[in-house]
Each structure stands twice: as structure tokens, then as C-alpha cells.
Specification:
By secondary structure, the protein is of the alpha/beta class. 33% of the residues lie in helices and 19% in strands. Helix 1 packs across helix 7 (263-277). The longest helix is centred in the C-terminal third of the chain and has 21 residues, at 300-320. The N and C termini lie far apart (44 Å).
Length: 325
Amino acid sequence: MRTRSALFAPWAVLTMLVVTACGPQGGDGSDFPSQNVELLVGFAAGGHNDATARKFAEGLEAELDANVLVVNREGGGGAIAATEAANAAADGHTLLFAPTGAFTSVLLQQDVSYGIEDFRSVEAVAENAFVIVVPDDSPIESFEDLEDVDDRMTYSAFGEGHQTHLIGEGIVQGYGLDAEVATFPGGAPALPALVNGDVDWGVQDITSALPRVRSGELRILAISTDYLPDALDEEVPTLGELGFEELQTAGSQALVVPADTPQEVYDVLAAASTAVVESDEFVEFVEQSGGAVPDVEGEAWFSEYMPTELERFRSLFEDLGLEVP
């Protein structure tokens, strides 16, 4: 049975005209895919987005009976991958594993050539909490201890304006800390700085943080969601419980395609994606990684969920004094 988190309220290609050497033929989607399918991921290998995308691609490959290749196009908080996907042929052979930030923080901070209206969401795939972590030997024993630190600190985040940066900056301003952000292109690149003590604390995705927590290299001070993932082995406070309700958030990922993808192609991808996301194997993988399956239905990820998140992030940017172009 498909299990979904309760964080968000409730709200799946193809047939490019089938391409052959002679040109388009047919239109019922029965010949899709006619070549390898590429799944673009906007972050480096090893982090939550990449790991989840690869597991999803594995299932999608079986459902489509075709090669599904994960292609990392890291940079710009997901903007590079999203731009490539927006400009790709709308034939179902180039897909985007879309993270929330590429359509919230990126749109609020960068001058990009795409927007929510350029895509259509096929399936909400996963969501992950963020955790505030410190090196295990840090003198900061609890989240509240941050407020008592007078020395200048450095914290890690996944890029300027990313959700992790907003959480970190919200904590800094809320507690009046003297701290600056050190940005990294994703969870995996940020981990060494945290483990080695190059930064004092960080906002990390739970998927990449959990192995280091379990090995005793990192400690969790708080979590960004209003629920504790099943994979978490300890009780930790939520940001809401600590007085930072406005910073509560999760990273969400969805399979999306260009908006003008033919309906026949979309329907094939939707059926295949739903089968993957509802499979026991995928749900178990997501939950063991510290994530959850979002309570957002396919097309509603873009039509309802993302517009709401964009406005929420716009307010956060303004409240924190971060520039919005």
C-alpha cells in the first residue's frame, strides 16, 4: 500500500509522434520509448536527489522496458538541469527529476529562462526532511545552545537561496547569531565540511546525514518537518516545537516533462511512474532513506503545490531580507 506523509494537504509519454528514421508515425504511445530515456538530476551524485532519482529510474526502466539513464547536471540549485529539460524535445525521452528549490528559490533569486508554466508534473516521487547537524565533538549539545554562542560561526547550506539557506538564515536571525553561510552544490559535497569541523553546524538533507549520524560523526539538533521520519532512530525536536514554525519545510521531488508533451506520452509515463512510486520496494527505499512519499497527486504538484510553495518562499525571502529580483 502506498504510504504518504502528512506534511502537505492532498491536492501520471509519450508518444512523441513516434520517431523513426523516416520521421514521425503513429500517435497512440504504443511505440514509446523509441530510444534511451534520460532523467536529468540537478545535483551532484551521492545526495538525496541523486540517490532517489537512481532508485526511481531503476523502477521506471522496468516499467517502460527501456534504458533510463540518470544524467547529473549539477549547478544553479537545479537551474541547469531544469533549463536543459525545458529546452528538450517534448517527446518523453528527456525527463526532469525536479526538486522544489528549482521552482521556488531559483525563480526568486536567478534570472532563468523557465518557469512553472513550462512544465507539467507527472508524479510526486519523494520528499525529505532537512536536519540541523553538528560534528559529534561539537560543544553545542542542543539546538537551544546555538543561542548562547557569542563567537562568529559558519554554517553549511546547499546554495544561496536554497531551502537549507533559508532555514539556516532564519535560525541566525531568530537567535541573533554572528554567522555566515558556506554554500555547497548539494548534500554530498557539504558532508566533509561538517564531519571535519570546517563549519560549526549545517542544514543537511536527512538522507545523506543519517549514515554519518549512525556512524557517530554527526549529531542532529533539530528537524525541519512537523513529523519524524520512520528511519530516524532518535527523538529530536522539530523546528516548530522550537519556535521556528515558519521555517518548517521539506524538500520534494517530482517527475516532470515539458508542458507541451503529447497527452499519449504523458499517460504512458504517468502509468509507469505511479506503478514505481506505489511499489513496496520503492516505498521501503524512500522510508529507509529518511524520506516519505508526498501527499500530492501527479499533476497537482505543479498546478497546486508548487505555486503555493513559491508564494510561501517569496514571503520568507522578504522576511529574511534576501533579495528577490
